[in-house]
Structure formats: structure tokens, C-alpha cells
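Checklist before submission:
- one chain only
- standard amino acids only
- sequence pasted in full

Submission:
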Amino acid sequence: MAYLAELDTRLLLYIQDALRYEPLHSFWRGISFLGDLGWFWIFTGILLARNSKTRTAGITAIAALVLSTFISNVILKNAVMRPRPFEVLPQIIPLITHASGYSFPSGHTTAAFACAFVYYKLLPKFFGLPIMLLAVMVAFSRLYLGVHYPLDVLGGIITAWFGSMLAIKSLHRFKQIKMPLRRLFLFWLPLSKILYTILFFIIFLI
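Returned file contents:
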């Protein structure tokens, strides 16, 4: 365990010392901004859910996002209680101001991959692959900006995979009991408004 913690720190310091390039600071801040409050992923989920051809992917992504974010920000962060790297390592210089909160797992990474896994699985690869690449970029941005350790990002990816697979399997079971997708969407429509609100406060307050 001590070895993993030391490797975690070394990797983060390497990114800061060897990979940071000042003209790219704004670019990586912008990539990270896509995960702030989950707004980008909520927006894409709603947008896809409004189209009959992509409705399944949109609804499933929203479900995966809510489930994964709850596991990450409510359960795991409060169970592990890992401080942010810049709070314990004076040599780490964060490139963004960040609200207080625990480090493991990365909430931005969890949200990005929760949706990306769903889109990669349920949508054509010409859409799924770029979204997956964007999720990787969001995850790296959290390391580049000095607000998460590599293990935080890995934990977010694993959490997202669990949440997304559970959401996909749940939707598959709905289809197996011959519940029409339109009925499922109409069922989710009022419930989703509540879930969006809960999701917003989970991300904003935790």
C-alpha cells in the first residue's frame, strides 16, 4: 500500500514537472470545465434522450451518471476521505481554485466515463470513440491541473464502469419484460427531473 501511495505521488509530480506547458494551461482548464457540476454530460444525455433514435443511450447515460456519481461522491469519498494532493504535498501547485472536498475517487472522471462507457456500448463507434477520448482527456486534465492523484482517476473509471454496466443491464431487463421504450421514457421523464436536481446537489455540495 505504501508503494502504491509513493508511486501515485511520483506520477503526479512527473506530470507537473515534465508534462505541463504554460500555453496549454487554458486548454486543460477548459477540458476540466466540461465536468464541472456534470453540466456537459447531463446536457448530452438530455439531448440524446429527446431523439427517438438515440433515446436508449440518453436515458441509460443519465441513469449511469446518477448512479456512478452517487457511489463516487456520497459513498466512496466519505468512506476513504483522502485529502487533495495540493493539501498534503507543498510541491504540488494546482492550476485551478478548487472547493474543499475529498480526492478519491475523481468525480469529474466518474461522470465522464459513466456516460462514455454507455455511448461506446450503445452508439455507433464514430460517436462512441470521440466521447471516450474526451473522457480520457477530462481524466488527464484533473492530473494536469494538480487536483487529483492517478489512483483517484483510476478509481473514478472503475466506479463509472460499474455504474454504466449496471444501468445498461437494468435497461436490458426492462426490454426483456417487454416494456415499450416509449413507456419507459415517459416513466423516466418526471422521475428524471428529480434525479437531475439530486445529481446537481450531489456534485455541487460534496
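Reviewer check: The longest helix spans residues 150-176.
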